[in-house]
Design goal:
This protein is α/β, with parallel strands linked by helices. It has 2 domains: 245 residues, no CATH class; 368 residues, Alkaline Phosphatase, subunit A, CATH 3.40.720.10. Helix content is 48%, strand content 10%. The protein contains 26 helices and 13 strands. An 8-stranded mixed beta sheet has the order 4-3-7-1-8-9-2-10. The N and C termini lie far apart (86 Å). The C terminus is likely disordered. It is a multi-pass membrane protein. It comes from Candidatus Butyricicoccus avistercoris.
């Protein structure tokens, strides 16, 4: 070894000065993040180790020593994998969890594999570093805003729902916050540093066998994704540790979607057995029981981002937020309580699906059902077909763009007679960013007033007013609600509460109008999910939300009511889940239902809450989602029914899921034409 090697020559500071600047900035940033309790002091150690290894690799002489020259570029790419993993973890949600050592290590390896493939493809270390860091940098910023706006990271399903995202994208505030500025500076500094440190001079143009083997190893790593159970590991821990982009787990989920969606544990034969047992039980319990002669109009309202934040913890506001909704608890013709949703902050259509189908997405491979399970279906049995077969006119109404969530295709296959979207509506009134609830409810009243005398309506309505993002005003918005003692500290939360107060006013006027309507009418109202608001609000109102599974479940509670303008049995403080609401409503007004809905209604007596995040039994005991199927045969039965209903469409037992005329006897969509209705005024 050259004895003068260790001497610092005149080019050292020119080449490595940026390294010291980056290391100094990183130390200051980590100290700031530790003081802010965003990371803990243990985070320093990985950076120290990574930095020391990087420096040592650059001091090792590469000339004249076989194989040693490869250490520099290997360490450089590993370091880039480490930096981008830390950047993505922290910028995604403002949290970095060192306890996820297994996940963190795998993410670093997969990030590094991307850099290796870029390196082999470009034959340039510098180009690989710049391109790779740019890709992860942009991905991090996008994921950061997605997290802010809906409270969950980017997932594979977002690729298919990109049109839905574009429909609301302009209504958000994209002002860079401290995470984008500080972490963006970190990534830029290290990108420039690694670029200036070079490395192309000892790798470019060389047909290095070791380099080729590294590329092969990277490809094999990605090829193993569908088999390593990485996506399953993420899903199993997502409730408590949903704070990283989980780059590899998303790729794993994407790869796994290429295979069969029908799980190996599913049994179509078991579904027939369950159907026969259910039919026998119904015949035994209801041999000659006739349904009520009352055939009401049915209005189902799924209210966008409608939650009762009081379930999270105690806080006081300057005025009552939802005085009308609260008053329904004493209404003699109302069933009130809370339903558990399977989602938080986004993916509205999954709650809509659970309501209409009575299935639970707990048992469906993690996805957006409307986007991935209706392509090959011709006729889908649901609440819509049950009411169609009782001579109802079925109407879908949503005051937003028809491109969202594949709804036009799904509505046609469910059998809706009419569907209205924003493009069909005239003189739309907006409140802040979206069509107002008052306008939306008036569309429902107009359809009721213009129906035929002997026509019975089922209207499925999805509101839009309270949709995120929760910044900005205009269109009549006025902040009326503030949190006592915390005025101005949680701006998104106070905006949301003010908006919800306006929704409550409009809802009260709507129900009052129906009280005076001259036909029996029933309304089932529920929120699709809670909103994703200021992260500081959640830590203030209930610090245990991220620590205890039972407390976390509070973020999935949404208020609901079933109300009629005639006598029905009053019930209060009901705990249920969205998948049970349709049979509960049919039972409340004594209307016929499918054998499946009857089975689900009976199941609810033992398991009143089943959602994607877990279940509660009749005694109030909580069970995590992953334990249910293996522990309880009746939950396994529900799983088989859900798969047969929605996933295994070729073998769906239509006679069980439909009422009256079987859906398989109906003409396919190609043989019939959906009724073209006049646009709503």
């Amino acid at each position: 070894m050259d004895k003068n090697f260790w001497k610092i020559d005149k080019n050292f500071w020119k080449k490595y000065g940026m390294l010291f600047i980056s290391m100094l900035y990183t130390a200051v940033l980590l100290n700031y993040l530790a003081v802010e309790r965003i990371v803990n002091s243990q985070t320093f150690m990985p950076f120290v180790v990574a930095g020391v290894v990087l420096v040592i690799s650059r001091l090792i002489p590469w000339t004249g020593v076989t194989g040693v020259r490869h250490i520099r570029w290997i360490v450089s790419l590993l370091f880039c994998g480490f930096i981008t993993h830390f950047y993505l973890s922290l910028i995604s949600s403002g949290a970095y969890y060192e306890r996820l050592k297994f996940i963190g290590l795998l993410n670093i390896l997969f990030h590094t594999a991307v850099f290796v493939l870029l390196f082999v493809g470009t034959d340039s270390l510098r180009k690989a570093i710049v391109i790779g860091c740019s890709i992860f940098g942009v991905l991090g910023v996008v994921n950061h805003y997605v997290w802010l706006f809906r409270g969950s990271p980017i997932s594979v399903d977002d690729i298919s729902s990109i049109t839905t995202a574009f429909g609301v994208a302009e209504n958000y505030d994209y002002t860079p916050d401290r995470y984008i500025i500080l972490l963006g500076a970190l990534l830029i500094l290290w990108t420039v540093t690694m670029y200036r440190m070079g490395g192309d001079e000892y790798v470019r143009g060389r047909k290095v066998r070791f380099k080729q083997l590294s590329a092969l190893a990277s490809v094999m790593l990605f090829a193993c994704l569908p088999f390593v159970g990485y996506g399953d590991y993420y899903k199993a821990n997502s409730n408590a540790f949903n704070y990283d982009l989980y780059f590899a787990s998303n790729l794993a989920t994407l790869c796994q979607k290429g295979g069969s969606d029908i799980p190996e544990y599913y049994s179509a034969q078991a579904v027939e057995t369950i159907a026969n047992e259910t039919a026998a039980q119904r015949e035994e319990k209801e041999p000659v029981t006739a349904s009520s002669d009352v055939k009401p109009n049915i209005i189902a309202i799924m209210s966008e981002s409608y939650g009762d934040l009081r379930v999270l913890g105690d806080f006081e506001t300057n005025i009552e937020v939802t005085p009308f909704m609260d008053s329904l608890r004493t209404n003699e013709n109302a069933i009130t309580g809370y339903a558990y949703a399977s989602i938080f902050g986004s993916k509205t259509a999954n709650s809509e699906f659970e309501f209409l189908s009575s299935d639970s997405i707990l048992f469906i491979p993690d996805t957006m059902v409307y986007l991935h399970y209706f392509d090959d279906v011709q006729n889908y049995d649901s609440l819509v077909s049950v009411l169609n077969n009782q001579d109802y006119t079925t109407v879908a109404m949503h005051p937003w763009l028809r491109a969202g969530w594949n709804r036009p295709a799904v509505y046609s296959k469910m059998g809706f007679d009419e569907s209205y979207f924003l493009e069909d509506m005239k003189d739309v009134d907006y409140y802040r960013l979206y069509p107002s609830d008052e306008y939306n409810f008036n569309q429902i009243l107009d359809r009721l007033e213009n129906k035929e005398d002997d026509e019975k309506l089922f209207i499925m309505n999805i509101t839009m007013q309270n949709h995120s993002g929760y910044e900005g005003g205009g269109n009549g918005y006025e902040q009326t609600v503030s949190i006592v003692g915390q005025e101005g500290n949680f701006p998104k939360t106070e905006l949301y509460l003010s908006e919800q107060h306006e929704s409550d006013r409009a809802l009260g006027e709507f129900i009052t109008a129906l009280e005076n309507y001259d036909e029996p009418t029933v309304v089932v109202f529920f929120g699709d999910h809670q909103p994703s608001l200021d992260s500081s609000f959640y830590s203030w109102v209930n610090p245990n939300l991220t620590k205890d599974a039972n407390e976390l479940m509070k973020k999935y509670m949404v208020p609901f009511f079933i109300w009629a303008n005639y006598d029905i049995e009053q019930k209060t403080d009901v705990r249920t889940s969205i998948n049970y609401l349709a049979p509960m409503m049919l039972d409340a007004v004594d209307m016929p239902m499918s054998d499946y809905q009857s089975h689900i209604l009976e199941q609810s007596k033992q398991w009143p809450v089943i959602c994607a995040k877990g279940a509660y039994d009749a005694a109030g005991n909580y069970y995590p989602a992953g334990d249910l199927v293996n522990l309880f045969p009746e939950i396994k039965d529900y799983q088989d029914l859900t798969i047969n209903h929605t996933v295994d469409y070729k073998n769906t037992l239509h006679s069980f899921f439909s009422y009256g005329e079987s859906a398989e006897d109906d003409a396919s969509p190609s043989e019939t034409t959906q009724t073209e209705a006049e646009p709503a005024a």
